[in-house]
Design a protein that fits this description.
It is built from 9 helices and 16 strands. With 326 residues, it is an alpha/beta fold. The chain has 2 domains: 111 residues, NAD(P)-binding Rossmann-like Domain (Rossmann fold, 3-Layer(aba) Sandwich); 171 residues, Dihydrodipicolinate Reductase, domain 2 (2-Layer Sandwich), CATH 3.30.360.10. It holds the Pfam family GFO_IDH_MocA_C3.
C-alpha cells in the first residue's frame, strides 16, 4: 500500500479522504488544510489525522493528493515533487500554462509521476465506448449545471467545459487549428455560459456548450464519424451507438435500409455496449497507484492535463473581448 496524504479538505477533498481511507491500494496517513478550524472539524468528525504543517504531511507520505483551490495547485505540487513525492492534482492542473509546464519539467527532473483529476475519463459510459470512437469528424457537447456558488470564482470554461475539452483531446488524434468562442456573464463576474467551436488540423470540428445557470443538469456528448454515431450521457451513464454497414442483398422485414444519391444502400443497426457502474473518483485514484507500482504511464498525464488547460485558456482568450454582461 502506498502512503498518501491529502491537501485540502473542502467538499471534494472530503470525498477523496473517504475513498482513500477505504482503498486497498493506499494507506491514508492524514491531511492538511490551510483553514485550521475546518481541518480540526473534519478530523474530529471523521477521525482522519490532521497535520497543521504542509511540509510535515508531505514528508510522511509517498503520494500527495492535491484537492486545494486551483490557485494553490502549483505551489502545493512543487513542494511535493521537489521532495520526491508522486502527485495527483485535481483539474485544472494549475492556474497558468507556465505553471503546468514547470510541473512537467520538475516531475521529469525528480523522477516522479503525476496525474490530473479529469474524472470523466473514468466515467463508465465513456469508458464503454471510447475504443469505438475512431477519427470523429464532428463532436457536440452540452454540459449544463444548476447554479451553485461554489466554483463561480473561475470562468465556466475552467469549472465545467474543461471536462469535455479533455475528453475530446483524448479521442481526436490531431492538433488544434483554430478556436472561436463566446461567453456571457449573468450572475458571476466571470462568464456563466460559454460556447466554443474548436477546429482541428484533420478537419474535425467540436462544438462545446457549458452553462452553470441552467434549470436542469445535463452532461452529454455526441460523436459523429464515418458510418457511426455515438452518444454518451455522462450524467445518466448511458450510451447509444448507431452504426451503418453495407446492406445485404436481401433485406429482412425489420432491417433499416438507407439509400444515398449514388444508389448505395446502407443498413442501420444499433449496439448496446454494456456499461459497468463504478466509482470514477476511486478508479482514477487507484489507477494512479497502479501506475506508480507498475512504473507505467498514468491515464491522465501532466502533459495531457496541460494540453486541456492550454485549450481552455485559448477559449477564454477568444471570448474575453466579446463577453457581454446582462
Amino acid at each position: 500500500m502506498l502512503k498518501v496524504g491529502v491537501l485540502g479538505a473542502g467538499h471534494l477533498g472530503k470525498i477523496h479522504l473517504r475513498l482513500l481511507n477505504e482503498s486497498k491500494k493506499y494507506e491514508l496517513v492524514g491531511f492538511y488544510d490551510a483553514d485550521a478550524i475546518n481541518g480540526k472539524k473534519v478530523s474530529e468528525e471523521f477521525g482522519y489525522r490532521y497535520f497543521d504543517n504542509i511540509n510535515t504531511l508531505i514528508d510522511a507520505v509517498e503520494v500527495v493528493d492535491i484537492v486545494t483551490p486551483t490557485l494553490s495547485h502549483f505551489d502545493c505540487a512543487k513542494k511535493a515533487i521537489q521532495k520526491g513525492k508522486h502527485v495527483f492534482i485535481e483539474k485544472p492542473i494549475t492556474n497558468t500554462l507556465e505553471e503546468a509546464e514547470e510541473l512537467q519539467r520538475l516531475a521529469a527532473e525528480f523522477k516522479v509521476k503525476g496525474q490530473v483529476g479529469h474524472v470523466e475519463r473514468f466515467n463508465p459510459a465513456f469508458s464503454s465506448v471510447k475504443h469505438q470512437i475512431k477519427n470523429p469528424m464532428f463532436i457536440e457537447t452540452h454540459r449544463l449545471a444548476e447554479f451553485n456558488p461554489r466554483g463561480t470564482d473561475v470562468p465556466v470554461v475552467l469549472d465545467l467545459m474543461i471536462h469535455d475539452i479533455d475528453a475530446i483531446l483524448s479521442v481526436v488524434d490531431s492538433k488544434v487549428k483554430q478556436i472561436n468562442a463566446s461567453g456571457v456573464s449573468v450572475i458571476s463576474k466571470s462568464p456563466d455560459i460559454a460556447n466554443a467551436r474548436i477546429e482541428f488540423e484533420n478537419g474535425c470540428v467540436a462544438n462545446l456548450t457549458a452553462s452553470r445557470i441552467s434549470l436542469k443538469n445535463m452532461r452529454k456528448s455526441r460523436f459523429f464519424q464515418k458510418d457511426a454515431y455515438i452518444s454518451v450521457d455522462f450524467l445518466e451513464k448511458k450510451v447509444e451507438v448507431v452504426k451503418m454497414k453495407d446492406a445485404p442483398e436481401v433485406a429482412g422485414d425489420f432491417d433499416m435500409i438507407l439509400q444515398n444519391a449514388e444508389g448505395e444502400k446502407k443498413q442501420i443497426y444499433f449496439e448496446n455496449p454494456e456499461v459497468h457502474q463504478n466509482n470514477a473518483i476511486l478508479d482514477e485514484l487507484e489507477t494512479f497507484a497502479a501506475a506508480i507500482i507498475n512504473d507505467s504511464e498514468p491515464v491522465v498525464t501532466l502533459e495531457q492535463g496541460s494540453n486541456a488547460l492550454k485549450v481552455a485558456l485559448e477559449v477564454i482568450s477568444s471570448f474575453n473581448n466579446k463577453t457581454e454582461v446582462i
